[in-house]
TrEMBL record, chains A, B:
Keywords: DNA-binding, Transcription, Transcription regulation
Provenance organism: Ginsengibacter hankyongi
Domain of life: Bacteria
SMART domains with a match to the protein in the record: HTH_LACI
Gene3D superfamilies: 3.40.50.2300, lambda repressor-like DNA-binding domains
Name of this protein: LacI family transcriptional regulator
GO molecular function: DNA-binding transcription factor activity; transcription cis-regulatory region binding
Organism ancestry: Bacteria, Pseudomonadati, Bacteroidota, Chitinophagia, Chitinophagales
Length: 341, 341
DNA sequence: AAAAATAGAACAAACGGTTGCGCTGATTTT
DNA sequence: AAAATCAGCGCAACCGTTTGTTCTATTTTT
């Protein structure tokens, strides 16, 4: 097993050139003669020479790797997001290191530290549903590791982030339900820590006020996204004296659980009770009783944009510190998708 | 921005020790005095010293990173598999680099090359559904990068692999259908390139023969896993003079499409026609008309086992080449899960 | 023909850490 | 008291590549 990979030194030895000459030859440096250049290149090709990336990473203090931290990959939202990240990374010849927090703050911290130590050049993050403290990300600034958040973003002005504009989608969703004749619209919201949860409620109230529909706070319940809590939330809604005729749920997975609960309660979906949610999962197409509509949040586009910003930051780093360093804060418009059926 | 990370050199300078002393002190080398050791460790802690991984990777010619190549992450099967890989990697303090082939052979090759250049220490692979040629993986041997395949594995004796034992699951599935009274059992199989496709048919025939049920080859159709082809396959089956009363599909996604088609054809699921498939996706639980049963293939366990083998190989590499180098070939037993409903 | 300019290549340092070996002064052995 | 031992630390090489500087012919200029 002659497992030794060819190095510049090896090429230099065979051709009786110096290592530096070989290096420059391969880089088409002007101070290398044509003959030499040809010889070097040919031998390099013969030997299948590939620069040792670990040496380069070390030398350049760059790893050409971006880290991605997100709650999990099993939600299709995030696996689609990965595609957006990968695509941009590939264009820039970067690799992607992925870590799942599984919505656990400690794991999130641990991964962030591991990625710092691995010397990733930058980080794309969608925070866990319980994260309230962002120190483990903020501290990366000391190491010049830029961080761009997407989808689940911290509620801080001093970070780069790309998120869905829940406002628009929520507005469309509620108006859609009102148009369909619904007046008692329930909401199964996410944990209060999540920025999107607050925004959803604000928009919900705004729309109802404008349409002069009385707001009933008992119609607003929360779930931590687990099935158990969603069932509880549904029970609370259905046990009301005047239960809602339509429910807005924080995402499609919650909607699925909610629908399941409604069916167990012998309710006719889309007749006794209708659902609208967020995410627009492909799986919806296979359901017998899907939500009436979903707010598409374009995970691919969000993640892609976040990654593009990250690469901008890599370059901006070289630019002398502008005093007023701008923080990117992009909103991707959601879009209500009405499911035909 | 004092972005300079602390180095051994920095610690040595401040304490007026040599770099080597500092290095050894941090590693509890016996030839370093207690006083010195304490001083060094304290300052290291104060400065938040962390060894520069890129330097270590370079020096040790190891990246402590394993590469994973799989068709895609949006199939829950694979995102669960990732968890198995991550868990084992974490125990061994390894990072995980992920690449999706999107079932495209060229992308698969490209990723394999990129990972080789990144100097991953080893590779976990589930091949694309069209891959017939394995040179891009075999050639990694030259670079001493071990490869372990899982789930979708090459049909070669000279590779390490972990796969599902389709035999058992398929047998259970068909016998289950026969017990339910079905005599005309259709199969929507995968592309012939896939090893599992062949095995499925063999078992199918064996079971039918044993049960003395006549084999009708027109009941066996194939799909490339796309919806279009699955619909075509379904059409072929349903247009038969004596269409099947039950269908075995290669996986749950195909089953979903097949069920959708059957419903469009006004067939009553689980009455006019029943389905059994492979994978046992969680989503099944939300369906109104799920397959009767699914063969669970334990992606987490498969991937975990594959990764454990990979780490074994890392160590085995140091052992002098045994002439008879064994190739791992693990089969994980599938298990038919009958969906209650 | 001597001086200046230039092309083409070599030298050497640097990135940060590990490690075999050698050095020094103190302690123990004979 | 001289010799041997040893604890404790420094020196230097090395991993592969890049790059600023220097060197050496050769060519061009005057």
């Amino acid at each position: 097993m002659d497992n030794k990979l060819p190095t510049l030194k090896e090429i230099a030895r065979r051709l009786k050139f110096s290592v530096s000459t070989v290096s420059r030859a391969l880089h088409d440096h002007p101070s290398i003669g044509l003959r030499t250049k040809m010889q070097v290149k040919q031998l390099a090709k013969e030997l299948n020479y590939e620069p040792n990336q670990t040496a380069l990473f070390f030398k350049q203090q760059k790893t050409h790797t971006i880290g991605v931290i997100l709650p999990n990959l099993k939600e299709e939202f995030f696996s689609q997001a990965i595609n957006g990240i990968e695509d941009v990374a590939k264009i820039n010849k970067y690799s992607v290191l992925i870590g799942q927090s599984h919505d656990d703050i400690d794991q999130e911290k641990q991964i962030a530290i591991a990625m710092k130590n691995q010397r990733v050049d930058g980080l794309i993050v969608s925070i866990s549903k319980h994260t309230k403290n962002y120190d483990h990300f903020i501290s990366l600034r000391k190491y010049n590791i830029p961080v761009v958040f997407f989808d689940r973003v911290p509620d801080l002005p001093t970070v780069h982030k790309v998120a869905s504009n829940f406002n628009t989608g929520t507005k469309q969703a509620i108006e859609f339900l009102i148009t369909k004749g619904h007046r008692r619209i329930g909401v199964i919201n996410g944990p209060e820590e999540m920025k999107s949860s607050k925004e959803r409620i604000i928009t919900y109230m705004e729309v109802l006020q404008k349409k002069r529909i009385k707001i009933d706070l008992s119609l607003i319940v929360t779930t931590d996204l687990t099935q158990v809590k969603t069932f509880e939330a549904m029970k609370n809604l259905l046990d009301l004296k005047y239960p809602p005729t339509a429910i807005l749920t924080i995402n499609d997975y919650v909607a699925l659980d909610a629908i399941q609960y409604a069916r167990k309660s012998k309710l006719k979906i889309n007749k006794d009770i209708s659902f609208v949610s967020y995410a627009n999962l492909p799986i919806i197409n296979y359901l017998e009783f899907p939500p009436l509509a979903s707010v598409e949040q374009y995970p691919y586009e969000q993640a892609k944009k976040a990654t593009e910003i990250l690469f901008d930051l890599f370059n901006a780093d070289n630019i002398p510190d502008e005093e007023e360093k701008k923080y990117h804060n992009i909103l991707i418009e959601g879009q209500l998708i009405i499911h035909k059926k």
